[in-house]
Amino acid sequence: MDLAAIVDNWRTLSALAAPAQCAAVVKADAYGLGIAEVAPALWRAGALTFFVAHLNEGLRLRALLPDAVIYVLNGLMPGTAPDLVAARLRPALGSVPEISEWSAFCRAAGESHAAAIHVDTGMERLGLSLDDAVRLSDSRRLLGFEPSLLMSHLACADTPGHPLTLRQLSIFTDVARRFPGVPASLANSAGTLLGRDFRFDLVRPGIFLYGGVAVSGVPPLRSVVRLDARILQVREVERGATVGYGAAQRMKRRSRIATVCVGYADGLFRAAGATDAKPGAEAIIAGRRCPLVGRISMDLASVDVTGLPDGAVERGAMATLLGEGIGVDDLAARSGTIGYEVLTSLGGRYLRRYVGG
């Protein structure tokens, strides 16, 4: 895990977004990379505002960063206002019941506690409807608190030219005008790359910080993760032999197969395996790309190293699944998924080393 790369990626986006503030999304244990290491590195780099998904993530982050501004994206669960306030966490309020409960708590305490207002502009997931947002703006003076942020979330910003993206921008711009003086935030990683109109007062990058692709066709920033696994055995298999469970792939030549100590229990998806009908992912061994063969099992994967020189592969050597030109989105594409899932699925059996930052 290269913390210096994460910091450099954040600084690149911060410079791009200026004069908007650049926050950092560190939900899901900083996209699987370790919030205890990632968040302090970003704070030292100058990030002041962070986003998590759940209350417990916010509590953990507050213990790490006593002075950071922390928003809880999944909002206000019933009865949790005292816990949020005690930890100085700011919920993203996305429904009338949430706003009513937060407002009532603030009035009862005689104090205004910061919270975001989340408006749905087309995601159809979380957030106030447009009608509710308009009604709230008309009665804002009756709230028991002053909103600290107005936010929405882009559904298709990673797809260039998608019509929903411009429609969401138009809707959010109109809503933001109804909340004068309240900072506004629409852009995720992809939205940050779409231009100044999307950035408003604060951007909320996630995947781009961690070396993933944010917009189709736009290269990622610095790679963050390198994933190596030990080779347990190298064996010869005859032409026509099948490799792995289900006999899914039959060898077309006499081959050398390296068995690698990594499997789907470690987050290497079964779909990254190969069959007679489709190629799988690749690993870099002895400096060359080699194809995975057969199914991925719980703890093991097989790699065809026939093309390497004799003696180039030995028991105990490393196979690289991420790094040396294989990015998270490369592995994701061979697994039928997205880079986000690759990162957040990295298992607990790895020895994790953090460098830089």
Q: Care to describe what's here?
A:
- With 357 residues, the protein is of the alpha/beta class.
- It has two domains: 208 residues, Alanine racemase (TIM Barrel, Alpha-Beta Barrel); 118 residues, Lyase, Ornithine Decarboxylase, Chain A, domain 1.
- Helix content is 29%, strand content 19%.
- The chain is built from eleven helices and 17 strands.
- A seven-stranded parallel β-sheet has the order 2-3-4-5-6-7-8. Strands 14-15-16-13-10-17 form a six-stranded antiparallel β-sheet.
- Helix 4 links the parallel strand 3 and strand 4.
- Its EC number is 5.1.1.1.
- This is Alanine racemase.
Q: Nutshell version of this structure?
A:
The chain is 29% helix and 19% strand. The chain is of the alpha/beta class and 357 residues long. The modification N6-(pyridoxal phosphate)lysine is found at residue 27.
List key phrases describing it.
TIM Barrel, alanine racemase activity, Lyase, Ornithine Decarboxylase, Chain A, domain 1, pyridoxal phosphate, 11 helices, Ala_racemase_N, elongated, Alanine racemase, 2 domains, alpha/beta, PLP-binding_barrel, 357 residues
Q: Span between N and C termini? A: 10 Å
* Overall radius of gyration: 24 Å
Tell me the major beta sheet.
7 strands, parallel
**Strand order in the largest sheet:** 2-3-4-5-6-7-8
What is the overall shape? elongated
Write down the overall mean pLDDT.
96
At the fourth level of CATH, the homologous superfamily of the largest domain is Alanine racemase
Compute the number of strand runs.
17
